[in-house]
Fold:
Amino acid sequence: MIRPSLSAFFALLFSSSIAWACDDPAQTEKLDIDYIETSPDITLRRMVVKNSNPKGTVLFLHGFPETLCVWKDISLALADDYEVHAFDWPGYGLSSRPPADKFSYAPNEYARVLHDYIEKANIDESKLTIYATDIGALPALLLALEKPDIAQKIIVGDFAPFNRPQYMYESLQHLKSEPSAGKMRAYMNQTHAEILENAYRRGLPEEAQFDLSPDVKDDMSRGWDHGGLTSADAFYYYYSNFTRDENYFEANTDKLTTPVKVIWGEKDIYIKKEMGIELAEKIKAQLRLLPNVGHYPHLQSPNETIEEIRESFQ
Structure:
């Protein structure tokens, strides 16, 4: 196990139930949750599902308001064939939360974190599939612009690659600029319990709604304000640089050569499917729309995610 930084060590010492909330005692031979320092300011909590002879490596990148715990069951389902990684983004779970004057939480800053993680974890990029959703997707594509061989395939979905507020949920539109962004940040912090309970249900008909396992809900809840900066704060800072990084990506889509597949929940109310359709057309990527699925396909329909991962290695 990699030794945590001082801040992570104290988180582990005083909040061990958080650090290991999604560890499964029955799966300890396959699943490991520990810490990895990727730069002097950033230590990431990560989960690794081991395989002694993997067909390849999968790296899952979570969205808001999630933590690495959302990938546990999918990762274990893939354990017989692949080595699987996931980590908490800075600002989420038990990863570092440096002040915004030292770390911007911007998509392009997350792209650097992603690059550093792949390098520090000694992942073979030629046999790597990255599956990225929500806030994790644009950083993966920004990194691919700079480093086309970062993965053999990238699967992205349910995010905003372009500055198209008309395709975004009203609360997300408010985060795009001040003064509404600051007000939305405060509101999200005040109502964080409701967000954690209902974000993944919103917009779905009653028959399609689902619940999260207690360990996932507990991990997201306890990790919300770990380290003095909340996940809503990190989300706010991400959005403060979002339009700039969206515009950069759109201006450079012709440079994207890494194979990409776009997966989208057809019933996504946060980022409408039209955004995914435009992205796929612009980068000439295969598009799969998931009927009756919302913003969190990996939570609502995990078997679809597992299928996509396996297909990516064929």
Observations:
- The chain has 14 helices and eight strands.
- The longest helix spans residues 107-120.
